[in-house]
Every structure is written in structure tokens, then in C-alpha cells.
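Listing S7. Sequence submitted for prediction.
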Amino acid sequence: MRYVRMPIEVESPEQVGYDAIRYNLCESSMRDRTVAELGLDLDVGRMLLLYGDHRGHSGLRALLAAEGGCDPDQVLLTTGAAGALFIVSTTLLEAGDHLVVLRPNYATNIETPRAIGAQSSYVELTFEDGWQWSVDQVAAAMTPRTRLVSVTTPHNPTGVVVPREQLARLAELVAARGAHLLVDETYRDLTIEEPAPFATTLGPHVISVASLSKAYGLPGLRLGWLMTRDPALNERFLAAKEQIFICGPVLDEELAYRVYARRATERPVIAAGVAAGRAIMRDWIARETAMEWVEPAGGVVCFPRIRPDAPVDVARFYAALTGDHRTWVGPGHWFEQHDRYMRIGFGWPTADELRGGLAAISASLRAATL
């Protein structure tokens, strides 16, 4: 494995120091929550800190399986979605194997296969195409050596949602080519419409990955999962987890179970917060003539850009933004794109913080105008 630190981690707020940031617009989740805010009746003092079920909390797996069209034993709890993605890549790919992956993308979906030595073909998403991709593009990128196709919906960093019919056609293509389909559904509970069934319902060769980090504001629990209806593949994934972690933290899993068990009451509150943040973004974009975006249909991030014809010195812009205004966004190079693009998270900051950060972006644009 050839590990390389990713810019998105090196330059993250937790590495820079939250105290150094005034307006944090680069977070990709809902706002972090305290244990007290969860309002859970949990007697931690009586919890036995044993080795837990290697697959994870049985109650949480049952809830997930009911939505994933699979058996609870076909759900594997992991250390966040990042842990699930690592398990999938290291189980299915070896040096020289081929995969097809969208770009831009969440960095782990691209970097872990590189660390393994796998060969990647990228379906390049563009602003001009509304960050959309087609099944024909994926088909053209596949080769006889393709072992894995990796897509994300809702997409990070753009917020684009893949129509269910398109995902079903992709699943058929991947099955016909003898490969596996990975669907990163981390933002599934943050779509404008009612969440679609987990992608595992599309076939035994489809692997769904998600977590509680983004939608529920619980990244500190490090609780994610992967699902597959292929029994043999499920056993391989379990073997990988056992060799890396043995099992998950029982306290994290119990907290996660109790939150997810009341998701029917959690989701409307979350949806209202997402809608409010998106509305603030929409109003700002309409006023800020130097910026443009593709409005997201899901998630709590968007990927606007400084207009190509806007006479802005990009280096001066970021210097003003981070230096003068202490405001953080996710610059394009986090996603292997030009820094005229930036990921803005509108779910984590309060309304006042979001407005303040957007005002800082506007002021930095003016300061960097040639």
C-alpha cells in the first residue's frame, strides 16, 4: 500500500485548528451534536465494554437491512463510511486491477485504489453538464479488467442525485460485465425527495456504503456500514473487518442504534435545516455576480465556481479569504479540480455563520478582482 496524505485531510479544520477559523464553510455534514443534545436515556455506567458482535449491533443492522432489501447478516457496521470504503477497495482490488470512478469525488474513493496500485479510469464530471454522467460514459470507460465501478449519490462535492432508473441501468451494465458496483450513499437521508431504497436492492453485485456522520451530525461516533446481498462477498468483507478492527466500539454502536431507531422523527428536523441552508446559498448566488453553481438536489454541500470570465486572481482570493477573513471553504484541489471551484457546506454552520462566511467570500472576490 502506497499511502499518501490527502489535501482534504492535511488542510482540514481539525488539522488547522477550529480556533483559527471564524467562518467554517468547508464541513460536509450537518452540525455536530453533543450527547446531551441527542436526549438519549442511556445508562453508560452499566454498559459492558466487551468485544461486540463482529458484524455490529444486531438492532441497528436489522433496521438497515429492512431498508436495504437484505438480511441483517448482510449488513456490516464499520468505522465510518471511510472504513467501509477501505474494506471494499482492499477486498475487491489488487495492484493492476481496473476500476471506473467518478471525478470529482470524495477523496477516499479515488485515493485508496491508488494506494493499492489499481488502475483507475475516470468519468470526468463537468459544470457545463450539470455534474451529470451517463451509463454510456461508464460503459466506455470499462475494460475486460474492470473489477469495480464506483459512483456516489447524492454526490460529494456537487450534491447531484442520480435518478433511480439510471442507477438501475448502471447496475445491469456492471452485472453484464462481471464486475461489482459500489454506491456511496452517505448523503442518502439528505435528499429533497423521500430517500430511495438502498442500492443493494438492485442486485447481489451491488454494494451500498453509508454512515450516520453526514446527515445526523455524528462524525465523532465513527459509525458507518456496508451492505451486500452476496453471501460469499459478505464473508470476505467480514474477514477484512476482523483483521483490521475485530469489532466496532459497543458504545458508539448503541448510541447509533438509538438515533437511527427514531429516524422518522429526526429526518424532518434535518430536512428543515438543509432547506434553510440551501435557501441562503440560493439567495447569495443570485446576488453574487462573480459566482455560479449547479443547485444541489441532495446533501449539504455544493460546488460553485468563480465564473470563468470573472477577472479574479484566485491565489489572492484564497489569501484574503483565509488570511483576512479566517473563512474556510473546500478549494477545488481537494477534489483534483481547479481552485476556481470550491465546496461550500451549508448544513454545518448556523444561519448567521453561513451568511457571514458568504459575505467573506464576496469581500475576498472584490479584493482579488484584477
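Caption to Listing S7: primary sequence and predicted C-alpha cells for the chain studied. The chain has two domains: 7-28+265-367, 49-261. Residues 7-28+265-367 form a domain with the Aspartate Aminotransferase, domain 1 fold (CATH 3.90.1150.10).
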